[in-house]
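name: query_chain
kind: protein
chains: 1
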Amino acid sequence: MEEYPYWRRNLWVLWVAQFVSVCGFSLSIPFAPYFLQALAPDANAKQIRFYAALAAFISQLGFAVFSPIWGWLADRYGRKNMALRAAFGGTLVLGLMGFSQNVTQFILLRALQGILTGTIAASMTLIACTTPQEKQGYALGIYSSSLFSGDMTGLFLGGFMAANFGFRNSFHISAVLVLGTALLILLGTREDFRRTLPAPTKTTDKSGLWRTAMLPALPALLIYSFSCLAYCLDESQVALYVEQLNGGPAQPGREFLTSLTLGAGSLGAMSAGLLLSHFIDRNPSRIAFISATVAGMTMLMMALLPQWLPPTLRMNFLGHSATWSALCLIPLRLMTVFFAGGVDTICNTWISKVTLPSHRGVMFGISRTFRAIGTCSGHLTAGAVAPTLGITTLYYIGPLAFFLLAMMVSLLNRRLTRRIEEVNRLTIHHP
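structure:
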């Protein structure tokens, strides 16, 4: 532990920075489908669903391509520098999104977001590389709670901001918040970066990186990618699903109900990070198996319960008229994302623990590529299924993906356990 006496300070500074950063993104990005409706008032419902899925997909594609590059640079020039790059990049992109004049401009800026940002991966790498090995599950679990608590806060405020100040101003406010996180990281974190220069015969070629880093981490990366597919399958369509269940775009209060639904999911994921942070280092595979199974069951209920309730049954909820079908999504999404968020946190811990410290920057970059591949697959599926078979169909496909994920965890658990033991031995003898 003496090697990183400042790891707790870094953890809590980055917790606050990431909370504010994610809050900033969540003020505006989840309401993109409504902003797209404003940018393309003549588009029909199917076109808006396609645009929403395309914008989400192209952003993740940018993450997939550039995350390994940023990770490679982090291992050579410092992880703090990459965290600053991501925060300042996010400030620029969010500010420009508020000036979008049409759908094409907005989608191109979403692509630029994927290329320049990545605050989560950059901060996670900095934490993993400045935290003792035996505390990484705890640190990454605590850190993950900042992502979802910030998301929850941003979603609650985002509905209010969109309804009262407009979508454009929401993007500009988001940019200011992310700029604040860049300054916080600049002034509040510490990294005594020492570039590691491995033996030329082992790591200067691609096959060496594959043998020493990629291949041992591949089981964790595959689980991570598939968990992101299941987790993000309905992400671009939640706002439209809430709108659909509440009676269509003509019914008022869709922004408020969307904020509550998405915010409930963020509350669930935040709770998962806080509760599981004390147990992740002990038995992660069992927690991941149970979490994936229960997430599938609760997501299935998001399709079934609205079908069982009369669509005309409404009530006054916190000053807004809402259907029971729309309201039932709030607790169900909380439970679904609580358990899905547990899998996400465990995957990040696995990736850190199966990777030698000298490769963690590039491996966290590669992990974002695998995450983006899974997320892109989810958005592509949503873009194909929602306009043709309806949004509800996604809530039948999602549970199947979670059940398959639980099977993957069981099959790959032994390989992950052996690799973690091997990395622990290597770290002890060659710190």
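note: The chain has a mean pLDDT of 81.
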